[in-house]
Amino acid sequence: MSVTSSALILLSEEAHEGTVPVIDPTAADGVLSLLWLIIALPALGAAVILVAGGTRTRAWAHLLGCATVLASFVISLLAFFALLGRDADDRSVSQFLYTWVDAGGFTADMSLLYDPLSAVFLLLITGVGGLIHVYSVGYMAHDERRARFFGYLNLFVAAMLLLVLADNYLGVFLGWEGVGLASYLLIGFWQHKPSAAVAAKKAFVVNRVGDIGMALGTMLAFATFGTTAFAGISAVAGEAEQATLTALGLLFLLAACGKSAQVPLQSWLLDAMEGPTPVSALIHAATMVTAGVYLVVRSNFIYDYTEVAQTAVVIVGVVTLLWGAIIGCAKDDIKKVLAGSTMSQIGYMMLAAGFGPFGYAFAIFHLLAHGFFKANMFLAVGLGPAGYVAGLAHLYAHGFFKAGLFLGAGSVMHAMNDQVDMRHYGALQKAVPVTFLTFSMGYLAIIGFPGFSGFWSKDRIIEAAFGENLVIGLAALVGAGITAFYMTRLMLMTFFGKKRWEEGVHPHESPKIMTVPLIVLAALSVFGGLLVLGDWIVDWLDPVVGVTQHHELAFSPIVYSLIITVVVAVGVAIAWLTVGKSEVPRVAPTNVSFVTRAARADLYGDALNEELLMRPGDRFVTGLIAFDDRGVDGAVDGTGAAFAGMSARFRRLQTGYVRSYALSVLGGSLLVVVALLAVNLT
Amino acid sequence: MDPTPFLALSAILFTIGCIGVLTRRNAIVVFMCVELMLNASNLALVTFSRVHGNLDGQVGAFFVMVVAAAEVVVGLAIIMTIFRTRRSASVDDASLLKY
Amino acid sequence: MFPWLTASLLLPIVGAVVVALLPSRNDLPQKVALGFSLATLVLVGLIGFGYQVNGERYQFVEEHNWIEAFGAHYAVGVDGIGLTLLILTAILVPVVILASWRDGDTGRWGSSSFFAWMLALEGLAIGVFAAMDVFLFYVLFEATLIPIYFLIGGFGGPRRAYAAVKFLLFSLLGGLLMLASVVGLYVVSADSDAGPTYLITELAPVTAGLDTEIGRWLFLGFFIAFAIKAPMFPVHTWLPTVAQEATPGTSVLLVSILDKIGTFGMIRFCLGLFPEASEWATPVVLVLAVISVLYGGLVAIGQRSIPRLIAYTSVSHFGFIVMGIFVLNSYGQTGSTLYMFNHGLSTAALFLVTGFLIRRRGSQLVGDFGGVEKVAPVLAGTFLLAGLSSLSLPGLSPFISEFLVLVGTFAYNWWYAVFAVLGIVLAAIYILLMYQRTMTGPTQPAVAGMKDLNLREIGALAPLLLLIVVLGFFPKPLTAIINPAVGDTLEQVGVTDPEPAVPAAAEEESNQ
Q1: Going by DSSP bridges, is the β-strand pair A26-27/A93-103 parallel, antiparallel, or unpaired?
Q2: Rounded Cα–Cα distance for residues C25 and A571 (Å)
Q3: Which residue of A lies nearest to C162 if distances are taken between CA atoms?
C-alpha cells in the first residue's frame, strides 16, 4: 500500500469509486503478440483429432493433445514473464484479432485481453491442464476411444482459455458455452452408460439455466453501455443507474451459479462425476467450475458499485460452502466426496468475491469510530478487492490441490479396478505409496494444515469473513471444520484401516506417466501458499481489482489462524473417533440420522428439482401436446370434419330418383316465380 | 287477337306434362311428358310471336324443336340401353347415381 | 446487360423439364438434376460476387411490362436480404438432391418426377426472392405450392395424401387473404398519381400516405398469409404433419426455403409497404412470436416422432425470426435475416441426418433407437453437431443470429426478451433429450447392425456443417450484405436504434 493511494482514499467517502480500476489496455507487442496462439494451438489440436476421427488418429492423438497444451503453457509462461517485466500500471494488454459480429449497431470483436488476472488463469489452465493431459495418457491407455478423449480435452482447454482471455462479454459467452460443451461431451464420454448420458445432459441443461443470466446480462450491458467490451464498460460503469448495475450483478451471479455449481444450480456437479476421473479433475474441480468466480472478479467494475448483488454473492457462497461440505460428509463414493468438497471450496471463493458491500460499510463505520488516524489506514477501499484477491488465491491453490486429489482418486480407482465406493477400499497406503503420499499433500492442503497452500488462502477468507459479519465468519469457520472432518474420513476409509477389497482386486501403483503429474501437483499444493505469503498475489492483482487494504480485525490474524487450526483439529479428531477407531462396514448402514440421510440424498436438491420442476414440467408438456393435438390441430381438423359432416347431410338430398329431382326443380321454379311476383308487387 | 285461349291451352298442356313427369314411372312416358312440356312452351312462344308481330318467338320455338330432337336421340338411346341391361324402364329403378 | 436473375430462375425450371423427360434408371435423373442445381449455384454465386455491398439498394434489376391494365411487371432484382435467401436456396437444393438420392424410388411416380419437382421448386423460389413486383410475387408465391404439393403427396409416408391436402388448404387460405390485399393494392395504386402499379419501388411512396385503416387491413392480409407460411402459433399445425409424412429432402425444401418466404415477405412487404400498420401490430405480433418460441420448444420436448420434433423446433425458431423482424431495430432485423440463413442450414442438417437415421432403422420414433453412437459414430457426431447448432451453441452460426434477435428484443422491451430467452433452455432440453435417447445408452438390438454414413451422405452434410462452423466464427460475408438492406428497410419504416443509457466511448463508433 503506497502512501499516495492512501492519501487519495482519504479524500472523500466516494473515493471508493476511484478505486475501481478502469481497464485500459495497450496493444500487444513482442512475445505478447503470440497470445492468440495460446488458444489456437489446442483448438487446432481438437479440430484435427475430431475431424480426422478416432481410428485414424489413434496412434498419435494423445501426443498431439499433450503437445498443444504444453506449447500453450510455454507461451503462457513467456507472456507471464513479459508481463512481469512491465510496470504495474502497464500490465493490461489487448490483442485485436478480427471483428466477429458486425450487425447493424451491434459490434463485438474477437480480441483478447491479457492482464494479471487472465495471466494467472492462463498458467493455471495450461499448467494443470497439461499435467492432466499427461496423466490421461496413462489413465485412458486402454480405452479404445482415447483419441477422441484427447480431442475433447483439447477443445475444453481452448474454450477455457478463450473464456479467460476474451475482452468482452460475448467472447466470454463463447468460451463459457464452449467449456459447457466440452464438459457435456466428457461427462458423457462413456455414452453406453445411461447414467453418464443422463448426467451429461443434466449438466448442460442446468448450465443453460445459468446461461440465461449470461445472455440477459450481456444484453443488458449492451443496452446500457452500447458495448460488451470490458474496457468500455469499466470506464463508465459508475455512471449507470443503481438498479441496472444490481440487475447486471444478479444476472452474472446466476450465470456463475450455473457454471460453478453454486446453490441453487448445484445439482449437476455430483452427477458429473460420471465422467472419466481426469475430466473430473480438470473440468469439474480445477478450472471450469471456477469460471463463475472468474466472471464475478472480472466484473468487479459492476459488483463494486452494487451492494445488493454483492450480498447475494456472499449468501450464495456461504450457503454453498456449507451445503457442499455437508454432502461431502455422507458420501461413500470417493469422487462424490471430492465433488461436494469442490462445491464447498468454490463457495469459499464466491464468499470472498462478494465481500464488497460489507467492506464499504465497515470502512465508514471505522471512519466514525476510530477517528482520523485509523481511517487513514482503513477507509474506503473496503474488502471488495481484498475479497477478490483472497478468492483468487484460494481458487489458485484449490486448482492445485483439488486436481491433485482427483488425480489421486483416479489413481486409486485405477488400482482398484474402477471401484469408487470407499467402503470397498481401506489399507491402501502400502499398496499405492506414491498415490498415498501425494494424496496426503492435497489432503493437508485442503483442510488448511498450517504451512500448506489451503491454509494461507482459506485463512484469508475466513479472516475477511469475520471482519465482515460474525455469522458469515462463523459459517465459514464451521465449513472449515466440516471440511477437515470429511477429508479425514475419506483418508481413513481409503488408505487406513483394514482391507475391505472386493474379491480378485489386486491394487498396484499406477505407471509413471500418472504418478509424475501427481507429484508435481502435490508439490504445488505444498508451496502454492507462498503466493499469498508476502502478499505477492495481492500486489500482482492490484491493477485489476483495485487498491487493496487490509481490514480491521477484532484480534490479530494469528489469533484467527489459531482458532481455525483448532477447529480443523476438532474436525480431524471427530473423524478419527467416528471412522478411524471403529470398523468401517462394507455396506452403508441404513439406520442413520436424518441429517446423514439428507446428505446422502444431496440434501434433497435433486428431489426438489424433480418435484418442483421436472414433474410439473412433464405434465405441462404432456398437457400442451394434448392441447396442440386436440385443441389447435383439433380446431383445424374439426373445421375440416365440420364441412365433411355438412356435406354428408346435404348429399342425402341426391336420392338418385329422377322424379324427386324433378319435383325439386318444380319447387325451385315456383319459388323463383313467387319471388319475382313479390318483388314486382312491392 | 286474343292470346288467352292459346296461353290457357299451353298452360294446361304444360301442367299435364309436369304432373306426368312427377308421377309416372315408366321412362318412356316420362320422356313423352317432357316432350309435352316442351311443346306447350312452343305453343306459348308462337302465340307471343303472333301477338307481337315479330319472329323472335318462332325462332325460339325452332330452337326448342331442334334441342328436343337431339334430346330424343340421346334420351331414347339411354332408355333403350337401360331397358336392355335391367329389363325395366322404370325411372325409380335406375337410382344408382346418387350420394 | 446479361439477365442474371432471370437466368438463375429459368435454369432450374428448364432443368425440371429435362429431368422430367428422362427415364428413371441408372440414377440418370439424380445426376442431371444435381448438375442443373450446381449450375444454378454457380450462377447465384456469380450474382453474389457481383453484388456491390455499398451500391444501389436493388441490384441486377430487370423490368418489363407484363399486364399493363393492372400495372403488373416482370420485375426482378435483389437487395441484401433477398440475396441472402437466394444463396441459401442455391446451396440447399444440390445438398438435398445429393442426400435424397434414393428417396424418389419408392414414390408414387418415378424418381425423375421427384427431382424434376425439386428443380421446379428451386426456380420458383428464386423467383419469389427476387420479385420486385407484388403481383409477380403473388403468382410465384402460389405457384410454389404446385411442386411442393406433389413432392409431399407423391413421396413419403402412408398419410402423405392427408398431409399434402392439409398443407395445401392452409397455404391456399393464406394465399386467398393475400390475394384480397393484392387486389386492394391495385385499387389503392390505381387511385393514386402513380397510376396502377405493382412495382414495390413505386408502391412504397403510395402506401406510405395511405389511410391508416385501409393500410392496416391490407397489412393483415399479407401478414396472415406470411404467418401461416412461417409458421407461427396458432397456425403451425400443418408443419408437424407434413414433416412426419414427407421425405427428409422435401421437409428441408419446405422448412428451410419455402417457409422463409413467409418471414422474407414480412420484411419486404409488411414492413416495406405498411410501416404504420407494422408498428401498430408490433405488440400483438411480438406476443405471438414469444408464444411460438416457448410453445414450439415445450411441445417439441414431448414429441415421440423425430421429424415432428424437428418441425416443432422450427416453430420455435420462426418465433425468434418474427420477433427480430418486428422489434424494428437494426440488431433484431439483421439477426432475423441471419437467422433465416442459419436456420436453413441447421434445420437442413438436422432433417437430413435424422432422415439417414430413420431410413436405416425404418422407424421415426425416438423410442425405437438407442446406443446408435456405438455402431455409427460419424452419424452420431454429425447429428450432435446439427443438434447443437439448432440449440444455438456459441461458435456455431445460429448463435449469433439468435443472440442478435434477443439483443434487439431486449432493446425494444426487456420483458419480451426475458421470456424469449427461456427458449434457449428448452432448446437444450429437446435436442439433448433426443440425442440421449437415440444415440447413447446400451445399443439396442434393432440398431446393432446399423451402417455408418456413406461417402454420399457425408458429402451432402459436410458443406452444411462446414458453413455452420465457419459462419459461427466469421459471419462477416453475410452481415456485410445484410446490414445495408436492413438499414434501408428501417429507414423506410422510419425507426432508429435506441440509444444506450450510458454510452461507452467505444472505438467501434469511430468506424461508422
Answers
A1: parallel
A2: 81
A3: A637
pLDDT digits (tens, 9 = 90+) for C408-449: 999 898 899 999 999 999 999 999 999 999 988 888 888 888
Question: Torsion-angle region of residue C11: left (phi > 0), alpha (psi -120 to 50) or beta?
Answer: alpha
Q: Go through A68-92 and write b for each residue having 16 or more CB atoms within 10 A of its CB, e for each that does not.
A: bbbbbbebbeebbebbeeeeeeebb
Does C375 touch chain A if contact means CB atoms closer than 8 Å? no
Residue A500's SS3 state is coil
Instruction: Calculate how close chain A gets to B57, using CA atoms only, in Å.
Output: 21
What residue type is A644 in one-letter code? A
A142, A175, A524 from A399: Cα distances, Å: 27, 19, 10
CA angle, residues C443, C449, C455, in degrees to nearest 5: 110
Using beta carbons and an 8 Å cutoff, which residues of B are at the interface with A?
18, 21-23, 25, 30, 91-92, 94-99
Q: Give the separation between CA C353 and CA C248, rounded to whole angstroms.
A: 9
CB C479 within 8 A of CB C338: yes
ipTM: 0.91
Nine cell digits for residue A429? 497406503
Among the residue ranges A118-132, A420-434, C83-97, C204-218, the one predicted with the least confidence is A420-434
**8 Å CB contact between C79 and C206:** no
Q: How far apart are CA A588 and CA A331, in angstroms?
A: 10
Whether chains C and B touch (3+ CB pairs under 8 A) is answered by no
| Pick from A107, A173, A208: CB nearest C508 | A107
Q: How far apart are CA A381 and CA A547, in angstroms?
A: 7
Q: For residue C392, what is its C-alpha cell?
A: 444455438
Partner A contacted by C510 (CB < 8 A): no
Residue in A with minimal Cα distance to B91: A658
Helices A61-84, A116-139: axis angle to 10 degrees equals: 160
- Nearest chain C alpha carbon to A195: C441
**Cα angle at A669 between A663 and A672, to 5 degrees?**
145
Nearest Cα to A379, choosing from A390, A363, A368?
A363
Chains A and B: how many Cβ contacts under 8 Å?
Answer: 32
Q: Which residues of C touch A622 (CB under 8 A)?
A: 302
Any idea what the Cα angle at residue C75 is, between residues C72 and C80, rounded to 5°?
Answer: 135
Q: Which three cell numbers stand for residue B46?
A: 308462337
- What residues of chain C, 274 to 333, have a C-beta less than 8 Å from chain A? 295, 298-299, 301-303, 329-331, 333
Say which range, A242-251, A410-419, C344-353, has the weakest mean pLDDT: A410-419
